[in-house]
Amino acid sequence: MKRSLAAVAAATLSLALLAGCGSGSSGSSNSDAIKLGVNYELSGPVATYGDASVQGIELAVEEINAAGGIDGKPIEIIKYDTKSEPAEATTLATKLMTQDDVITVIGPATSGSFKATIPVANQNHVPVVSGSATAEDVTVSNGQVQEYAFRTCFSDSFQGTAMANFAVKDLGAKTAVIIKDTSSDYAKGLAENFASTFEADGGTIVGEEGYVAGDTDFNAILTSIRSKDFDVIYLPGYYNEVGLIIKQARALGITAPILGGDGYESPTLLQLAGASALNDVYYTNHYSPLDTENVKVTEFIDSFKKKYNSEPSAFSALGYDTAYFVADAISRSGAELTGNAVKDAMASTTDFQGVTGNFGIDANHDPEKAALVIGLTDGVPTSAVKAA
């Protein structure tokens, strides 16, 4: 059975504070510390995801070390910036595993960059874990489970399916238009699974349009769909383009509910779209600050706000849970403390209790957990519904 690391540490270990956490250099390394690689997008087009994730990771590590670390040893973070580039992620993963001698690497946040590090993990027998890489082939590729790759978030197929069910059952939608980023495996995966489930539920896809990451003018595709009769728009993608599309759609008088995925989770979405455009907007997500009856959620929010003086995002919560997930596996991996042992402990997790939900790891190295659908009013989350 999975043990609660925080409880075990608090009950059995003396208080120990982290010395030298997370500079991106191992020059001041504590020889007794357990080294944890953090390989994230801290600059570049999706830095919002990386920054938020790392904030959650660093908060978790501080708490773990303050509770005694892992078997009396502090965790030391060795942190690097992938610059939102998959090639850089691969280079840094290699450095972390072969030069910095980390026991596990957390990150990157996005599927493409995370997948780029998996061959390095398999070669060096060092597990890699992402809290937000949702693409279908992250943990299983060509029918084979990636032995050293894990994630703590649900997959694209799951959130695409969950949103289609929500559209039909909660919004009463019968017709939908899809607008997707044709350059993104993430967007294409969500769109495919939304469409298949929506149609299986009796709905009809009446139109489909595409764009490419980096586009800024979407009036042509929005004008094309405006003449169609539809109940909802499914718009999977990242906040950079999604914010502009929503703003331009509302400016053209398109008032239908707009649905999407966890790529919406960024304060930049509100900046780009504007509050007035972000009504009747719903997206699948891993965490909700509205869950005030959950003590783990409220304690996490309080701790995060105390440390950073800001509200945590879902990526912060996922980073926080992922760090605890990794630490829990390390604590159960035995005296050898090898990548193989940690990998086996991760695979055997059965009842992890996190801020983003309770889960076990299945045979494909994916968590078995629920999704939420977040509803926005003037850009602010005002509803959260469990979806499956």
Account of the protein in words:
It is a single chain. The protein is 40% helix and 19% strand. The protein has 388 residues and is α/β, with parallel strands linked by helices. The protein has two domains: 5-154 and 291-370, Rossmann fold (3-Layer(aba) Sandwich); 156-285, 3-Layer(aba) Sandwich (Rossmann fold), CATH 3.40.50. Strand 11 (258-260), helix 9 (267-273) and strand 12 form a beta-alpha-beta unit. Helix 3 runs parallel beside helix 4 (111-124) and helix 5 crosses helix 6 (185-200). It starts with a helix and ends with a strand. The model is unreliable at 1-28 (pLDDT under 50).
CATH architecture designation of the largest domain: 3-Layer(aba) Sandwich
Uncertain runs are 1-28
In CATH, the homologous superfamily of the largest domain goes by the name Response regulator
Question: Which value, in Å, is the CA radius of gyration?
Answer: 21 Å
Which structural class is indicated by helix and strand composition? alpha/beta
Please name the CATH topology of the largest domain. Rossmann fold
* Intertermini distance: 26 Å
Major pleated sheet? 7 strands, mixed
Portion in strands: 15-25%
Q: Can you count the helices?
A: 12
Give me the strand/helix succession. HEHEHEHEEEEHEHEHEHEHEHHHEEEE
* Helix percentage: 25-40%
The CATH class of the largest domain, by name, is Alpha Beta
Mean pLDDT metric: 90
- Using the alpha-carbon principal axes, give the shape: globular
β-strand number: 16
Taken together, the total number of domains comes to 2
